């Protein structure tokens, strides 16, 4: 049994559904397809209704009659389900206690329950010009991308003036963090990748 558009189909059911759908989209009747493919109407009907298993040669003739290639016929079959995590704008899980509280918001954009985490993506917003910022250190590698604003960012002994569109990749074990907000509001994407 395999998945297609959220429902479970056996191979013969999948083939029947796809053949019928393609025939109808082409504006053909079963009789038309039978004549073009030189397959009996009864056999075409049985294939569409998953009442018979058929050879690849017969399928190829049938597909040719309805304007479908064999690769197009099978392109959706056995496609794995997505395990992607979609987060709508403004819906990320707000993380309390990360960094400082005043003028900062950390939204975790994806999270998994149980198991080992490999990646933590955050949307960080900052709007307080007077704040003193802590430094961070954590395992793994971090990628940051400044979406909006301007800031001075420190990694180890190096300092970077970052403007919208700038990015930085660095070792998370080395102390890092914003030193000064130069233009607010700041919107920053941070993705932490944890090493094996």
How would you characterize the overall build of this protein?
This protein has 196 residues and is an alpha+beta fold. The chain has two domains: 2-74, Orthogonal Bundle (434 Repressor (Amino-terminal Domain)); 93-193, Jelly Rolls (Sandwich), CATH 2.60.120. The chain is 24% helix and 33% strand. The chain is built from five helices and nine strands; from the N terminus they run ββαααααβββββββ. The protein has helices at 11-25, 30-37, 41-48, 56-66, 70-74; strands spanning 2-4, 7-9, 93-94, 104-108, 119-126, 141-155, 158-163, 167-171, 176-193. The strands form two sheets. Strands 3, 4, 5, 6, 7, 8 and 9 form a seven-stranded antiparallel β-sheet that branches. A two-stranded antiparallel ribbon has the order 1-2. β6 and β7 (158-163) form a beta hairpin. α2 packs across α3 (41-48). The longest helix is centred in the first third of the chain and has 15 residues, at 11-25. Mean pLDDT is 81; it is low at 1-8.
Q: What class do helices, strands and sheet pairing give? A: alpha+beta
Enter the CATH topology name of the largest domain.
Jelly Rolls
Strand content: 25-35%
CATH class of the largest domain: Mainly Beta
């Amino acid at each position: 049994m395999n998945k297609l558009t959220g429902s479970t189909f056996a191979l013969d059911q999948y083939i029947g559904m796809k053949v019928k759908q393609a025939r109808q989209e082409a504006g053909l009747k079963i009789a038309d397809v039978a004549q073009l493919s030189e397959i009996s109407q009864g056999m075409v009907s049985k294939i569409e209704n998953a009442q018979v298993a058929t050879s690849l040669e017969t399928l190829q003739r049938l597909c040719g009659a309805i304007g479908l290639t064999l690769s197009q016929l099978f392109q959706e079959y056995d496609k794995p389900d997505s395990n992607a995590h979609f987060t709508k704008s403004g819906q990320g899980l707000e993380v309390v206690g990360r960094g400082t509280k005043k003028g900062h918001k950390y939204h975790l954009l994806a999270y998994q329950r149980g198991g080992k985490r490999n990646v933590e993506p955050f949307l960080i917003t900052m709007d307080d010009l007077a704040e003193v910022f802590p430094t961070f250190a954590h395992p793994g590698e971090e990628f940051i991308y400044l979406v909006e604003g301007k800031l001075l960012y420190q990694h180890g002994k190096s300092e970077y003036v970052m403007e919208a569109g700038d990015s930085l990749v660095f070792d998370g074990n080395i102390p890092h963090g914003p030193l000064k907000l130069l233009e607010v509001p700041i919107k920053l994407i941070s993705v932490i990748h944890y090493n094996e």
